[in-house]
């Protein structure tokens, strides 16, 4: 499990000053001496005590040397020789993604590497996945590089067109000249479909987010549909339904699905959606897995507390986080990095999955 990245205000200020120190040295400013504590506190709108603690941290790192009480700190030669640091902006698919363990861990590791991290003021969902609105947000945000979570093809193409250094964390990145990483789920989606069919399920639906369905299904979704077809199950919008991506839209979809020909199995995109579906079914007395089997496409630390255990697709976020940090280092050093990597994924059967209801 990824460790939680909880940052004190002192850590955030130290990371910001560390990055600003490198940039101002490259611009020929701040030569020799660091701005004073009081001036920095006013500029950053934080307390003088917080700035003082942050400056002491930079002293411990050998970037500054104290000159005595009331005097500005001297910038060391080491600070001038250090590699360029980045202002990395993280653009989430939806704001709740910023609380995910691996996103917090990514922020922490980027800051440990000396970069400053800023969270985009809006998510892709807030911007309605509109590439033009995303482009405006990018122009309005002071950042040297971007990490985009679950970006649509249009959004990622927009970043490529702007020439902005960007890392696609998941999303429709295949065959784009862009760095990226994520779990290798395509094969596993087929495994899940095959296992469900083996348990007698014929009415199987995959509830996927908009970016995974449109403008066409992604590779994992296509593998799911192909596996169903391989077993003689006629493919229709029932198996990958369209829906309005909102809490209300999800309720309408579920009411519609269970009204006439209720599915006996649901494969559900992301843990937050899984919990919402499970809650909806419990409210209506639809038992899991007696009436319907549930499988989540992602792991989640809350699953360890659930009984029955949750059937899900597991993958390790560690390699993904390390890949992003390595990419940031390459960008900071002026090296072109557009490599895309996949981390292994596996299907974990659980108690939310059973034989199809008759």
In the CATH hierarchy, the architecture of the largest domain is: 3-Layer(aba) Sandwich
Mean pLDDT: 90
Main sheet attributes: strand count, strand direction, barrel closure: 6 strands, parallel
CATH topology of the largest domain: Rossmann fold
Question: Stretches where pLDDT falls below 50 for ≥5 residues?
Answer: 1-5
Radius of gyration: 24 Å
Summarize the entry for a quick read:
Helices cover 40% and strands 15% of the residues. It is α/β, with parallel strands linked by helices.
Question: Would you mind describing this structure in some detail?
Answer:
The strands form three sheets. This protein has a six-stranded parallel sheet with strand order 4-3-5-6-7-12, with helices on both faces. The chain has a five-stranded mixed sheet with strand order 8-9-10-11-13, sandwiched between helices. A two-stranded antiparallel sheet has the order 1-2. The chain has helices spanning 9-26, 37-44, 48-60, 77-81, 101-112, 131-140, 153-162, 186-198, 210-213, 219-230, 247-257, 271-283, 318-332; strands spanning 64-65, 74-75, 87-91, 116-119, 145-149, 166-169, 179-183, 204-207, 265-268, 293-296, 311-315, 340-343, 345-348. 40% of the residues lie in helices and 15% in strands. The two termini are 38 Å apart. It folds into three domains: 9-81, Arc Repressor Mutant, subunit A, CATH 1.10.10.10; 87-183 and 316-343, Response regulator (Rossmann fold, 3-Layer(aba) Sandwich); 186-315, Rossmann fold (3-Layer(aba) Sandwich). The chain has 358 residues and is α/β, with parallel strands linked by helices. The chain contains 13 helices and 13 strands.
């Amino acid at each position: 499990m990824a460790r939680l990245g909880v940052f004190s205000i002192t850590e955030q200020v130290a990371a910001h000053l560390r990055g600003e120190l490198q940039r101002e040295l490259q611009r020929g400013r701040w030569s020799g001496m660091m701005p004073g504590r009081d001036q920095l506190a006013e500029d950053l709108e934080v307390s003088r005590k917080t700035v003082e603690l942050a400056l002491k941290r930079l002293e411990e790192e050998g970037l500054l040397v104290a000159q005595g009480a009331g005097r500005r700190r001297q910038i060391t030669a080491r600070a001038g020789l250090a590699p360029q640091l980045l202002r990395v902006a993280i653009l989430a698919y939806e704001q709740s993604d910023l609380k995910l363990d691996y996103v917090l861990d990514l922020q922490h590791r980027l800051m440990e590497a000396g970069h400053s991290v800023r969270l985009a003021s809006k998510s892709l969902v807030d911007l309605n996945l509109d590439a033009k609105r995303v482009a405006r947000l990018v122009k309005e945000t002071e950042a040297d590089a971007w990490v985009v979570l679950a970006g649509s093809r249009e959004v990622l193409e927009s970043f490529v067109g702007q020439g902005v250094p960007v890392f696609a964390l998941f999303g429709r990145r295949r065959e784009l000249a862009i760095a990226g990483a994520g779990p290798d789920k395509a094969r596993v989606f087929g495994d899940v479909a095959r296992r469900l069919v083996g348990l007698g399920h014929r009415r199987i639906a995959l509830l996927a987010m908009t970016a995974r369905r449109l403008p066409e299904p992604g590779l994992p979704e296509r593998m799911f549909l192909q596996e169903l077809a391989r077993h003689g199950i006629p493919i229709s919008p029932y198996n990958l339904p369209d829906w309005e991506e909102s809490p209300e839209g999800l309720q309408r979809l579920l009411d519609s699905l269970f009204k006439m020909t209720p599915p006996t199995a649901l494969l559900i995109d992301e843990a937050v959606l899984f919990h919402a579906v499970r809650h909806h079914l419990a409210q209506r007395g639809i038992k899991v897995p007696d009436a319907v089997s549930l499988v989540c496409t992602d792991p989640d630390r809350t699953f360890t507390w659930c009984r029955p255990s949750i059937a899900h697709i597991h993958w390790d976020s560690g390699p993904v986080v390390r890949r992003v940090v390595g990419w940031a280092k390459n960008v900071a050093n002026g090296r072109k990095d557009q490599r895309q990597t996949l981390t292994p994924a596996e299907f974990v059967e659980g108690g939310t999955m059973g034989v199809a209801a008759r």
